[in-house]
Design goal:
single chain; about 375 residues; alpha/beta; TIM Barrel; Arc Repressor Mutant, subunit A; 3-stranded antiparallel β-sheet
């Protein structure tokens, strides 16, 4: 029996693969989608773990591509296997252009109480460059419908450093979005992954930059840095508190599910390729649709995380949160003094003004957040 468990449900389908996306997602017809849902239901009903599902998160892909009744069937399966408290946070990712009033009504009936809308940009030219299927007006209509349906906890996903984007158009996006007063905003910088349509253009840009030649695909490093600083400045002025490196919320609307990842709570993933962490054992589902539809739900790449790996994750995940980590929690969990493991590197990072210690907690400074990739990598013990 696991007291608190977070559930992630992967819906891998989308209408069209975006040019920057390297997630396990793809277009599929209605027959394949229906077959997948039946397999997903079998996996959930066959789960061995028992416990309280503190949060449920439908991610993708585009979960909102499914008919509303299918989301209801999946939630019925979840409730049949797990105890879902009345105050559980139940999130569904939805892309503009895939919502309608019937779906929203069905989601409410199923218990969905938080929507995450994938806007990315309020500029149509930037959306087109990303390969998104929606426009700003399409998004506005989806947002209005969600509010009219009674959703009172909405996140809007945004992305900066896009092809053709400037600091000016990024500020316009932030201003337009904050005028809508969503409860939560996720603001990530584009990371170009190998194997995506963007990668070849990005690699050419890198070569040109190394030779001192002008680059035209992505914004300059100076402009990207300006976007980064503008994000916190504008969102803070509009009442959004940064609680994680790339996430901002009004008081009381922090994403409990994602905080669970950063705090290393047990989570169970269902669906194609979904990952899980149960009692320090990490594993994932098959990434083969054929195998999944044949009910091959076995645990792949199962790995027990030893104390060293647990310490690393405790630090580089916990430090993503602006509240940082508790030294006392570290020592209680690992039965060893913090200074004996991380004393030296902590002192060095404090001297560089990248870490700060206060009231028994250690957290990133503003400069540390700016250089978070470097700072967090310093807590890897195996290097």
């Amino acid at each position: 029996m696991i007291n608190k468990l977070e559930l992630y449900i992967h819906i891998p389908f989308c209408i069209r693969k975006c040019a920057y996306c390297d997630f396990l997602s793809f277009p599929a017809g209605e027959k394949d989608r229906q077959s997948y849902v039946e397999a997903l239901l079998d996996e959930i009903y066959g789960a061995k773990e028992k416990g309280d599902a503190a949060t449920v998160f439908f991610g993708g892909g585009t979960p909102s591509i499914l008919p509303g009744k299918e989301i209801g069937r999946i939630m019925d399966a979840v409730r049949a296997k797990y105890s879902v408290p009345e105050d559980a946070e139940i999130t569904l990712e939805a892309n503009p252009g895939t919502l309608n009033r019937k779906k929203l009504e069905d989601w409410k009936k199923a218990g969905i109480n938080r929507l995450s809308l994938g806007l990315q940009s309020a500029e149509d030219a930037e959306l087109k460059a990303l390969g998104r299927i929606h426009t700003w007006e399409t998004f506005l209509e989806s947002y209005r419908m969600a509010r009219e349906a009674g959703f009172q906890n909405i996140n809007i996903d945004l992305m900066s450093a896009l092809p053709g984007q400037s600091a000016y158009t990024w500020r316009k996006t932030l201003q337009k979005v904050t005028e809508l007063k969503p409860e939560h905003i996720s603001a990530y910088s584009l990371i170009v992954e190998e194997g995506t349509p963007f990668y070849e253009k990005y690699a050419e840009d890198v070569k040109r930059r190394e030779k001192g030649l002008p680059c035209g695909f992505l914004p300059s490093e100076d402009e990207e840095r300006q976007m980064y600083y503008d994000t916190e400045k504008i969102l803070k002025a509009e009442g959004y508190r940064r609680y994680e490196i790339s996430n901002y919320a009004r008081e009381g609307f922090e994403c409990r599910h994602n905080c669970g990842y950063w705090e290393r709570k047990n989570y169970r993933g269902f669906g194609l390729g979904a990952s899980s962490l149960i009692d320090e054992v990490r594993f994932h589902n098959t990434e083969s649709m054929e195998n999944y539809q044949n009910r091959a739900f076995g645990r792949e790449d199962e790995e027990y995380l030893d104390a060293e790996a647990q310490m690393e994750e405790f630090m580089f995940l916990g430090l993503r949160l602006t509240q940082g980590i508790s030294v006392n929690d570290f020592e209680k969990k690992f039965h060893t003094p913090y200074v004996s493991v991380y004393g030296k590197i902590s002192r060095e990072l404090e001297e560089k003004k990248l870490l700060r210690r206060e009231n028994g907690r250690i957290f990133l400074t503003e400069r540390g957040i700016d250089l978070s990739n470097y700072v967090l990598s310093e807590f890897l013990l195996s290097e």
